[in-house]
Amino acid sequence: MSTLIAHLRSTVGAAHVLTHDDPTTDLSAWEQDWRKRAHGRAMAVVRPGNTAEVAAVVKACAAAGASIVPQGGNTGLVVGGVPDNSGTQVLLSLTRLNRVRAIDGANLTMTVDAGCVLQNLQTAAAQAGFLFPLSLAAEGSCTIGGNLATNAGGTQVLRYGNTRDLCLGLEVVTAQGEVWDGLSGLRKDNTGYDLRDLFVGSEGTLGIITAATLKLYPQPAAKLTAWAAVPSMQAAVELLGLAQQRLAAGLTGFEVMGQFALGLVDKHFPQLRVPLWQDTPYCVLLENSDFESEAHARGLFESLLETAFEQGTVTDAVVAENLTQAKGLWHIRESIPLAQAEEGLNIKHDISVPVSSIPAFCEATDAELQRAIPGMRLVNFGHLGDGNLHYNVQAPEGVDGKAFLRDEEERINTLVFDAVARFGGSISAEHGVGSLKATKLPHYKNPVALSLMRAIKTALDPQGLMNPGRVI
User: Fold this and answer.
1) Shortest CA distance to 464 belongs to which of 30, 45, 456?
2) Are 471 and 441 contacting, i.e. CB atoms less than 8 angstroms apart?
3) Does residue 1 surpass a pLDDT of 80?
4) What are phi and psi of 23, to 5 degrees?
5) What is the number of alpha carbons within 13 Å of residue 164 lying toward its C-beta?
6) How confident is the model at residue 137 (pLDDT cuts 50, 70, 90)?
7) Which of 38, 44, 46 is nearest to 81 (CA)?
8) Per-residue pLDDT tens for 384-414?
9) Residue in 60, 62, 115, 69 with CA at minimum distance from that of residue 460
10) Which has the least CB within 10 A, 27, 200, 312, 355?
């Protein structure tokens, strides 16, 4: 493999090919996943600076028979972007591909490199007078290529859709090192198969996304946030229906948070001052984006909450008076995963269930988990508006988290995933499959669908070198 390393250094520059041969080089930032669940060993970490270099790296790896693991910001939660322990895989980091190539105001699009950090794209769009609505907790470090590769969701899927829905075109390096330029900003193009949607969500198993053309939206005239206490999950679903009826497309966020999840934030980040959580099983965070005025937005919100109080779906509520207060409320919601990490290792589930079935799913699965593991603590929160829950299980008080994962993860995953299947849901809503759920997919995915997926994988990556062991 020394010949391949030499070739890669001549392609991207010696400074951008990192190996373990140099004792002063620490590769752990690339070789360990964000949750510290897996730590691999790469043959090399290669950091190309443009699409042509990515293509050259892929061609060299294909010729040498070396598999490639693409990586963006390394914020994934399903162990899909780190190498295995063989020391034979090339870790391809795309973070140097970080240009905003163009913003087309008339077409409401922006074309960007795959290594652009999501928050930087939001800022670039805002500076041009537009909104790029993809928003998630890792936006300060995740990259748009990773968002596309996993079809990331976030807090505004209810109004704007997943990352797939925000993408009009892609530039992709194939497994053979060819470049497909599909960056057209067209909203209508019926000239054959939709290759864009094939690569979005494929987690680097079919090709490497190097750039994308994304949708932009006008900035709303006003954005208001409310925090409401609700007496049950059923009440939260009823509040969602009422909000959709009253706010229509203005409802851009609807998050549900369980009492224990908020209690962890209050415990580990008391400076955030979590409102209303102590006397209610759930709280809901609503966002109303209005294109008329703040007065109009506030009037709609007040009318919505007044009706909700009358119907008993809300027991208490606060409406943010300014942007600072609104950011504070959202910061509480985004701090739940960090608070859970502070509490200890946990078993995460990123599931989706039809919204109408969520109350029954929670009631049945909560009870089944408690029967199986008395004292287990449920960290339930997520994007109720689109049926996506982060239905996480924390060890009972005083139980070692590492031992809990080792002894109980398989049993708990099976229990939760079986329940998801019974209620017509999915075991992965927005985090992807990676290697963490790859072995589970055959149990919960339609066999015909799996057969088609394998056929596509074989056709596009016949050598099996693109992120092997992920998805299928």
Assistant:
1) 456
2) yes
3) no
4) -65, -15
5) 16
6) confident
7) 38
8) 999 999 999 999 999 998 899 999 999 999 9
9) 62
10) 312
Distance CA 463, CA 176 (A): 9
**pLDDT for 2:** 82
Q: What six digits make up the tokens of 199?
A: 């690569």
Q: By C-alpha distance, which of 122, 96, 291 is closest to 214?
A: 122
- Whether residue 280 contacts residue 229, with contact meaning beta carbons closer than 8 Å, is answered with yes
Kindly report the number of other CB atoms within 10 A of residue 458's CB atom: 11
Domains (ranges, CATH) in the chain? 2-93 (3.30.43.10), 100-218 (3.30.465.10), 222-337 (3.30.70.2190), 344-422 (3.30.70.2740)
* Whole-angstrom distance, CA of residue 211 vs CA of residue 105: 19
3-state helix, strand and coil shares in percent for the chain, rounded to the nearest 5: 40, 20, 35
C-beta of residue 160 within 8 angstroms of C-beta of residue 451: no
Q: Is 448 exposed, middle or buried (0-12, 13-18, 19+ CB in 10 A)?
A: exposed
DSSP state of 219: P
Q: What is the pLDDT of residue 36?
A: 83
